[in-house]
Amino acid sequence: MIDPVAESIAEKRGILAGDILLAIDKENIQKPEDVLRILGTGKSQYALSILRDTSSVEITLTPVAGKIGVFVTPNIRTIEYKYNFLPEALYRGMFEVYHQIGFSFRTFGTIIVTSFSHTATQAEKKEATDGIGGPVAIGKVFVNLVGQGVEIRGILILIAMISLSL
């Protein structure tokens, strides 16, 4: 999911909070890191394929200072596993936890690398460290998700994953 920053190029071009980013330049987006990787190519313009409610929307953006002005979050959805055999259910649950913990470590690694990089500007370092907020930031995310109408069960799953990876 993407959420435009106020007054950003993304907001001005019509991206709305809760839009689901499907692809950039026809390259499918599977995880938030894909967005960073594609936008890191330094192109002057990107074509975004977005799912809004049940409609597909195409938006072309020209980055400003290498950024398009969106927050990218995993598309959290409620997953119900129904298995007749306990070991399979445990395996599937651990598989999901493993991938979510990996995402957390990769994100934290990116913050650390950027913070201590000799080539990153002070603004980039500040932006990286501003992403660390602890319990207060988790509370803000919770309030924002409730405000966007995300189902409480999905929010609780997100909080559980964050807690496991801390």
Total number of beta strands: 6
| Low-pLDDT regions | none
Helix content: 40-55%
Number of domain modules:
2
Q: First CA to last CA: what distance?
A: 23 Å
What is the H/E order?
A: EHEEHEEEHHHH
Spatial order of the strands in the main sheet?
A: 3-2-4-5
Q: Number of DSSP helices?
A: 6
* Computed structural class: alpha+beta
Shape: globular
What would you call the quaternary organization? single chain
| Mean pLDDT across all amino acids | 79
Strand content: 15-25%
Radius of gyration: 17 Å
How is the main sheet built?
A: 4 strands, antiparallel
What does this protein look like?
This protein has 166 residues and is α+β, with helices and mostly antiparallel strands. It has two domains: 2-72, Pdz3 Domain (Roll); 86-165, no CATH class. Helix content is 48%, strand content 16%. The protein is built from six helices and six strands. The strands form two sheets. Strands 3-2-4-5 form a four-stranded antiparallel β-sheet, with helices on one face. Strands 1-6 form a two-stranded antiparallel sheet. A hairpin with a 2-residue loop joins β4 and β5. The chain is globular, with a radius of gyration of 17 Å.
